[in-house]
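Action item from last meeting closed. Structure (399 res):
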């Protein structure tokens, strides 16, 4: 099969350490599933010169986008709870009325596989229409062995239903079931379900929610020890609502990423820099919960920490499935530059998932590619509610 050859393109390669890696008058060549050439058109190897090519007319090409933190699979909706809050009910009132995260756990346990899949596919399709080619999906709305494993199996199944790569994360340590203490849940259910899920090949990474309303660093440490024993990389929801020291703990375990980070301390930042842990920022949750304390972007920059951005798509704190809107919010709410936003959903998001073969336009990388009906990469962060995707390639196939 002749390779795809695109000329007269603006390539945002995001290679290099801190820029778009922009190539005006660029050319891109890819074969059945790998990129064969990404560079200036003037340097296009002779072997491609006589072959049929397509002129992109100055369109922008980026790596396929990566949503590196989602809770895409869940039952039910929390729209009524949202309405109650806007009519004056407190978070506690809602929890007492059976709302909050436990209402999603109940709805998820009660939903059939087909119901969970069909709701997740709606969200996944939104991401795909925005040029996303890799999505991370967490468990965490089962809180029992059976439903945690079911969520992970369904996450894997999505990969067979759509042209997308799924990375799975075990988030059994998301909340504490009502009938149990946190310690009891961690030791009796969460850790043994992790072992079982791992033995079924369902787990790529292990995550937890380290917060005063969820698990303590000491409890998370027990989970991370088991992850380490199983050879699984870890990541952590840390310092979202209060400083707990979860970030430093995660860094100590070589975490791929720490997520949220509004309350991160200078010691946490130093630990992240040392461990090469990515800061995954979730501006949708910050927006939806009307938070006011921003993550310390300048300190991440000074420490040379890679910043990723993600939707955190979930029913309680970030009911959104638009990676482009997450980029826009990263810029408007956190002050990230459009360049940082693009890197946050490509090269740095790949790093947050431990993936080395996607997230940049470079020879040898997977041909996961987005071509856009715009000429400059800042357009992707600038627009709201509009996905100017021209073509999307997943593993070299247009879809
Ligand atoms: N942090 C969050 O903001 C969400 N989970 C988490 O670990 C909340 C999830 C929910 O409310 O359903
Ligand atoms: Fe989350």
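Sequence:
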């Amino acid at each position: 099969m002749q390779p795809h050859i695109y000329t007269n393109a603006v390539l945002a390669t995001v290679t290099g350490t801190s820029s778009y890696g922009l190539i005006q008058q660029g050319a891109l060549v890819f074969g059945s599933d790998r990129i064969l050439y990404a560079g200036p058109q003037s340097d296009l190897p002779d072997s491609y010169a006589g072959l049929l090519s397509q002129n992109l007319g100055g369109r922008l090409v980026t790596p396929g986008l990566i949503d590196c933190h989602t809770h895409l699979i869940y039952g039910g909706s929390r729209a009524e709870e949202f309405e109650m809050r806007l009519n004056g009910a407190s978070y506690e009132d809602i929890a007492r009325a059976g709302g909050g995260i436990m209402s999603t756990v109940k709805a998820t346990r009660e939903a059939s596989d087909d119901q969970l899949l069909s709701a997740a596919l709606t969200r996944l399709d939104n991401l795909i229409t925005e040029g996303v080619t890799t999505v991370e999906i967490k468990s965490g709305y089962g809180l029992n062995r059976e439903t945690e494993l079911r969520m992970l199996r369904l996450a894997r199944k999505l990969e067979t239903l759509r042209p997308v790569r799924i990375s799975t994360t075990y988030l059994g340590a998301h909340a504490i079931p009502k009938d149990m203490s946190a310690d009891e849940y961690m030791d009796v259910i969460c850790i043994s379900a992790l072992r079982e899920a791992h033995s079924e090949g369902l787990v790529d990474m292990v995550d937890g929610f380290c917060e005063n309303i969820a698990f303590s660093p000491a409890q998370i440490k027990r989970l991370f020890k088991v992850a380490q024993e199983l050879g699984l990389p870890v990541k952590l929801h840390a310092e979202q609502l209060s400083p707990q020291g979860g970030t430093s703990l995660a860094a100590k375990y070589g975490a791929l990423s720490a997520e949220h980070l509004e309350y991160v301390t200078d010691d946490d930042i130093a630990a992240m820099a040392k461990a090469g842990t990515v800061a995954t920022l979730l501006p949708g949750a910050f927006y939806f919960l009307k938070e006011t304390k921003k993550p310390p972007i300048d300190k991440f920059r000074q420490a040379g920490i890679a910043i990723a951005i993600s939707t955190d798509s979930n029913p309680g704190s970030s009911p959104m499935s638009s990676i482009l809107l997450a980029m826009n919010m990263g810029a408007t709410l956190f002050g990230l530059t459009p360049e940082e936003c693009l890197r946050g959903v490509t090269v740095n998001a790949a790093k947050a998932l431990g993936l080395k073969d996607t997230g940049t336009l470079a020879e040898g990388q997977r041909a996961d590619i987005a071509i856009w009906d715009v000429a400059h990469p800042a357009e992707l962060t600038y627009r709201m509610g509009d996905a100017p995707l021209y073509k999307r390639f997943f593993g070299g196939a247009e879809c």
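Note appended to the action item: Residues 101, 104, 174, 209, 237, 240, 285, 314-317 surround DI6 (ligand 1) (CB under 6 Å).
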